[in-house]
Backbone:
């Protein structure tokens, strides 16, 4: 016993000596960073690959990946960890309206003067800019689009062509249904997937009513009373009423939707284009069968794509390792970072960093996006990047409209009520 | 306790009531008082304050009673209230009926009685969330085992959890399956405690089995019935875990209860609003439970 105590004391003394000897001198040991990402297979593989490449380039920095749930559960967790000072050093989170809701000015490190900002495309900067005009984040991923995935095999079999108007889309659906196949896949087991018909319709809203976003933020335009905005809800109801959905649409989950699309069990799946990564991961043999088109509006000449800005990476004010954290963020926002993502199958759309290129052999679902971004193509940001307000109950309301529980006009009116609550919570003027 | 104070009153009639002396010194209560203050008193008072503010976790603005006005304007509050009451009534009603039936079976001379009793109690011990997830899989409209079994007999099973008319009742049924074991055990205790003399007297009077049950077992297990109803009714009123695990209040809002409405507001970041909702829930449960407790106490006084 005595012997043990003596040993312990000697050990302690030796330890203290070492610490004293080291302090003042440059740190040779490695720094540990924590990196918080949303859970999900595609997020995990991309983060793993990026961290591996970063650690290889910076042997003195070690990055531990933590995961959190997505959706509103994740929003809550992010807010709580920020408010209690327990945030990871670096974290991945939405840009746009959700970014504004986490009080970036108070909690995130100002990255306005970082050298890599010169290579970030101008379209991304506003969606990670705090109210005081400082930039607090870097683009973490490729840009995404909201639209409709389709199975090219089914299209070839039935001799269909990519629709430019909603009427053409519904005509295609009728033919697919007549051939005994599921025309539109819906997966309300994961309620967030139900919002796409409404959210991805925003290019069409903006095409008809260019000031909608401003008037919406100022409490002047409403989904229920603006005919262009109401169309998104109506389209969802039309698709339900025409009986186009898979039989188990109420219980099926996102993973089921991916499977049905890849294996040709269903022809269309309205989704964000990040699903391409999941398709590459789970169904590499079928990836050539999958294409993508913008959600059609009512006029062919106004056809365009609703674009989602990628998530941002942010550094929490509370980090003890600011230099290492800045190095990590700079790496993510560099061509090396993009390449690591591409290696992990994450090239699901154009990157927003100059010098980042897409490989020549991207899946068709990605190359289908490119014309919308090229000369003569039409695209515009989703509403959540033009306005800070997004009502949190939209996914329940779209489940109701898509399940035939509530008519489109009612759903839109209910959503306006939800939006009002959110605007008041944000303390916006005019509400 | 009653006897003691009566005795004390007899010793000094008319004298001012003496302050009851505690056998412990004041510091003895300090740890408990601290824990109570920090973990219960402060949060309760803070929640009362925050229910009057627009609160983002980062800062709060005082807005008076706006949150309460908003909460009562919530389109789903009424439906949530109705659903909560339906859920509480259905689960406690079925637990009473099924619990009684099972208890009768398990107090009779049935084979392997001890084993059967423990089997009925087993679901009570399983985690609610685990039960919820399991039944969500079993109740899948096309691939679930329940509907696949029905299909073998040529019956097209309903969408248990995706049909807005059925979702709440499906969850309530699972709640009954999980909770009926407890009701059964309470009834078994109640039935076993009925003195055999009553049955003997009934037999001498020539009572049938059915009369035995109706005029002896049923009235004499009334205390057990009261316990089962109270426990399951309060449990049903504040139910959240099973509903959240199975439907998250869906499809849409059709199986929302008050607790899930409040939780969704909290998730959406309406912290002040959801705190106001909790204050409302607190008042509501108090309004329902205080008379219920008084009723039960009065009955105890009679017996």
Residues:
């Amino acid at each position: 016993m005595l012997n043990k105590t003596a040993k312990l004391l000697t050990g302690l003394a030796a330890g203290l000596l070492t610490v004293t000897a080291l302090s003042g001198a440059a740190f040779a040991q490695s720094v540990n960073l924590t990196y918080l990402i949303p859970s999900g297979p595609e997020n995990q593989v991309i983060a793993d690959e990026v961290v591996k490449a970063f650690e290889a380039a910076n042997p003195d920095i070690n990055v531990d990946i933590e995961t959190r749930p997505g959706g509103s559960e994740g929003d809550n967790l992010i807010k709580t960890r920020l408010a209690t000072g327990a945030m990871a050093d670096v974290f991945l989170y939405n840009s746009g309206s959700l970014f504004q809701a986490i009080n970036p000015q108070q909690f995130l490190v100002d990255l306005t003067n970082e050298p890599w900002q010169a290579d970030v495309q101008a379209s991304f900067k506003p969606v990670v800019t705090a109210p005081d005009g400082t930039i607090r984040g870097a683009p973490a991923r490729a840009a995404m689009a909201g639209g409709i995935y389709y199975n090219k095999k089914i299209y070839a079999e039935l001799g269909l062509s990519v629709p430019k108007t909603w009427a053409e889309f519904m005509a295609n659906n009728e033919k697919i249904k007549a051939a005994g196949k599921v025309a539109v896949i819906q997966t309300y087991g994961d309620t967030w997937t139900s919002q796409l018909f409404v959210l991805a319709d925003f290019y069409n809203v903006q095409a008809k009513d260019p000031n909608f976003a401003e008037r919406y933020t100022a409490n002047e335009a409403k989904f229920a009373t603006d005919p262009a905005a109401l169309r998104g809800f109506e389209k969802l109801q039309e698709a339900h009423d025409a009986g186009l959905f898979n039989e188990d649409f109420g219980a099926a989950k996102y993973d089921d939707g991916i499977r049905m699309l890849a294996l040709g069990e269903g022809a269309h799946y309205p989704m964000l284009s990040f699903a391409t990564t999941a398709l590459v991961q789970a169904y590499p043999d079928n990836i050539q069968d999958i294409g993508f088109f913008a959600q059609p509006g009512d006029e062919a000449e106004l056809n365009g794509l609703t674009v989602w800005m990628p998530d941002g990476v942010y550094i929490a004010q509370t980090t003890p390792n600011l230099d290492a954290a800045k190095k990590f963020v700079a790496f993510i926002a560099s061509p090396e970072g993009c390449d690591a993502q591409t290696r992990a199958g994450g090239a699901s759309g154009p990157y927003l960093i100059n010098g980042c290129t897409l490989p020549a052999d991207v899946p068709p679902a990605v190359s289908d996006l490119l014309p919308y971004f090229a000369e003569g193509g039409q695209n515009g940001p989703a509403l959540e990047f033009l306005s800070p307000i997004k009502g949190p109950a939209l996914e329940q309301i779209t489940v109701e409209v898509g399940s035939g529980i509530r008519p489109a006009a009612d759903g839109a009116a209910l959503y306006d009520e939800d939006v009002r609550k959110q605007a008041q919570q944000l303390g916006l003027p005019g509400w | 306790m009653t006897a003691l104070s009566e005795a004390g009153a007899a010793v000094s009639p008319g004298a001012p009531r003496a302050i009851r002396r505690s056998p412990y010194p004041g510091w003895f209560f300090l740890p408990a008082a601290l824990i109570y203050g920090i973990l219960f008193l402060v949060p309760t008072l803070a929640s009362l304050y925050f229910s009057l503010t627009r609160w983002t976790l980062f800062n709060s603005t005082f807005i008076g009673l706006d949150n309460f006005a908003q909460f009562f304007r919530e389109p789903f509050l009424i439906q949530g209230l109705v659903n909560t009451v339906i859920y509480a009534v259905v689960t406690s009603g079925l637990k009473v009926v099924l619990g009684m039936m099972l208890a009768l079976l398990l107090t009779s001379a049935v084979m392997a009685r001890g084993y059967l009793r423990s089997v009925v109690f087993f679901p009570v011990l399983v985690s609610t969330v685990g039960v919820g997830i399991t039944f969500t899989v079993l109740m899948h409209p096309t691939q679930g085992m329940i509907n696949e079994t029905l299909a073998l007999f040529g019956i097209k099973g309903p969408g248990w959890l995706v049909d807005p008319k059925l979702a709440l009742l499906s969850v309530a049924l699972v709640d009954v399956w999980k909770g009926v074991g407890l009701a059964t055990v309470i009834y078994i205790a109640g039935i076993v405690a009925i003195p055999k003399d009553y049955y003997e007297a009934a037999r001498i009077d020539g009572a049938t089995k059915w009369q035995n049950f109706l005029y002896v077992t049923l009235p004499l297990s009334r205390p057990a019935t009261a316990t089962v109803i109270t426990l399951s009714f309060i449990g049903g009123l504040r139910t959240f875990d099973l509903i959240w695990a199975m439907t998250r209040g869906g499809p849409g809002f059709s199986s929302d209860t008050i607790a899930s409405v409040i939780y969704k507001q909290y998730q959406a970041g309406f912290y002040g609003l959801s705190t106001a909702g909790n204050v409302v829930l607190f008042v509501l449960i108090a309004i329902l439970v205080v008379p219920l407790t008084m009723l039960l106490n009065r009955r105890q006084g009679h017996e």
Notes: Strands of chain B lie at 53-55, 60-62.
